[in-house]
Write a structure and sequence with these properties.
- The protein is mainly β.
- The protein folds into two domains: 126 residues, Jelly Rolls; 111 residues, Sandwich (Jelly Rolls), CATH 2.60.120.
- The chain is 2% helix and 45% strand.
- It is built from one helix and 21 strands.
- The strands form four sheets. It has a seven-stranded antiparallel sheet with strand order 2-3-4-8-6-7-10, with no helix packed on it. A six-stranded antiparallel sheet has the order 1-18-15-20-13-12, with no helix packed on it. The protein has a six-stranded mixed sheet with strand order 11-21-14-19-16-17.
- A hairpin with a 6-residue loop joins strand 12 and strand 13.
- The radius of gyration is 18 Å and the shape is globular.
- The chain starts with 6 loop residues before the first helix and ends with a strand.
């Protein structure tokens, strides 16, 4: 199947008034910790407000090669997906477990840990349920009852349409990451579209947010492609056409409040 956009297919889908689209080239970067100068990771918000109050937020973090944080905690739990480079996130005394692109991890609030990165370009996506996102000293550590999860990309379990109601077609697979999948329940998944695949994304929940982890995606009738680090989201019931425009597979992270369907 050709990787070029099929205009007739994409035009059958439409963008709703509540749709948001942020291209990676449009991101506004700032220092996570200005006091560290050039050693500080850069951050760019996709949705929400990282410094706000009780606001669900998604953002990208760009680490310099060789970055290694001091031991610290966060006031909120988060989920992370590696977009590029290698990321290590674990207890201060743990041996390095370098997670490549497509890996997934969770960091419980209050738990002491360090984060490190290596590679020419090291970018990760971070998903928090409630801002603000604060970096705090280890003296304020506490046990939230949650436990961390680190899943290397090679250990992600992919499911085809024979075993999942979320997808339909030979060119799409899903990996379940977190949450529940009932009506208006919050959940997180990874979606893999094969190169050249054109799919219809329909949502019946309150909201859906999609982050391009790898590859280039086509969206609706737009002439723009969404490279890795781009974000697309909408509220309420909606239908959209999404295609994989890259030579390799496209990988998407989806944060959904409710159920959805990816149909080839």
């Amino acid at each position: 199947m050709s990787a070029s956009c099929d205009a007739n297919f994409l035009n059958t889908m439409r963008e709703e008034p509540d749709t948001q689209l942020v291209l990676a080239s449009e991101l506004q970067w700032e220092k996570l910790n200005p006091a560290r100068g050039d050693g500080s990771p850069d951050v760019a918000t996709l949705w929400g407000d990282r410094k706000g109050s009780k606001v669900p937020t998604g953002f990208l973090v760009n680490f310099v090669d060789g970055f290694r944080s001091p031991p610290h905690i966060h006031n909120v739990s988060y989920k992370g997906v590696v977009i590029s480079g290698l990321v290590h996130n674990d207890d201060p005394d743990a041996e390095n477990m370098w997670m490549p692109a497509g890996s997934f991890w969770t960091q419980p609030k209050g738990e002491v840990h360090i984060t490190a990165a290596k590679g020419k370009t090291n970018i990760a996506f971070i998903d928090i349920e409630s801002a603000p996102y604060l970096v705090m000293p280890t003296e304020k550590a506490f046990d939230s009852g949650e436990r961390p999860v680190n899943v290397d990309a090679s250990n992600i379990v992919w499911i085809d349409s024979d075993d999942s109601s979320l997808i339909d077609g030979n060119g799409v697979e899903v990996a379940y990451l977190w949450g529940k999948f009932g009506s208006n329940q919050k959940n997180g998944t990874l979606i893999k579209l094969a190169s050249g695949t054109r799919a219809k994304l329909s949502s019946s929940g309150k909201s859906l947010k999609l982050v391009v982890i790898s590859g280039k995606a086509g969206l609706n009738s737009s002439t723009k492609t969404l490279p890795s680090g781009s974000y697309f989201g909408f509220k309420g019931q909606s239908k959209h056409g999404i295609s994989c425009e890259s030579k390799g597979d496209c990988l998407f992270y989806i944060n959904s409040e409710g159920t959805y369907k990816f149909k080839e």
